[in-house]
Amino acid sequence: MADLGIFRSKDSAIDGTRYISRVDASFRLRTLKQQDLSEVAALLCRCFYPQDGWQSWFNPIMQMGIFHDLQSRYSVRLMPFTSLIGAQIAQDASVESELVGTVEVALKSLSPWLPFAPSVPYISNLAVASQCRCQGVGKQLLFACEELVRQWGHPRLYLHVMDDNTPARRLYAKAGYQLVDSPPAWPNIFFASPKRLLLCKRL
């Protein structure tokens, strides 16, 4: 039996999609909407920016920037070829669930310098709350993206990962993503930054 399935009525929009996690999972997946963007921005800020030390002083500004970026893109997005998926703690229906994971999948060009290049399915902003890592949340979010992209009729799914992000690279390798492009090392040496690797999975 597959770990994850997606179901929706024939006349429903992609916003109505619900995702079925494993029966024994402690979380449930669903398509996020505009009213969820503030919580998504908070989660992304906690996952991608320092939470301690002087750098944490800038977190409110960073969170506001993330929120406005999401809001601007999702207010003008083209349906159905973009989706923001979230993982929430599975609790009683009367209790508000906590967002513990999120991922975005959309059709976009792989090169910002070639805006007219063909668009491909692309994963970004995969984030899981620290207290819920190593529990299958990231894997299930990836599976949800893959099933959605199959519905769109595309045979491949792409994402970028930083060369020094060992946990993320391990997750993607286990999920079947393979390296398809490694940029030259000299710009990274010049700017003292890790390489950004392009991975792909054939669905």
Q: Can you give me a brief rundown of this structure?
A:
The chain has 203 residues and is an alpha+beta fold. 30% of the residues lie in helices and 28% in strands.
Structure, explained:
- With 203 residues, the protein is of the alpha+beta class.
- The protein contains 5 helices and 9 strands.
- The chain has helices at 37-48, 59-75, 137-152, 166-174, 186-191, and strands spanning 5-7, 18-20, 27-31, 82-89, 99-108, 120-128, 156-162, 178-181, 196-202.
- Strands 1-2-3-4-5-6-7-9-8 form a 9-stranded mixed beta sheet.
- Helix 3 (137-152) links the parallel strand 6 (120-128) and strand 7 (156-162).
- Helix 1 (37-48) crosses helix 2.
- Proportion in helices: 25-40%
Apparent shape: globular
> What order do the helices and strands follow?
EEEHHEEEHEHEHE
Uncertain parts: 1-16
Q: Major beta sheet, specifics?
A: 9 strands, mixed
How many helices? The count is 5
In spatial order, strands of the major sheet run: 1-2-3-4-5-6-7-9-8
> Roughly what fraction of the amino acids lie in strands?
25-35%
Distance between the termini: 18 Å
Backbone structural class:
alpha+beta
Could you tell me the mean pLDDT? 79
Q: Quick one: how many beta strands?
A: 9
Rg from Cα = 17 Å
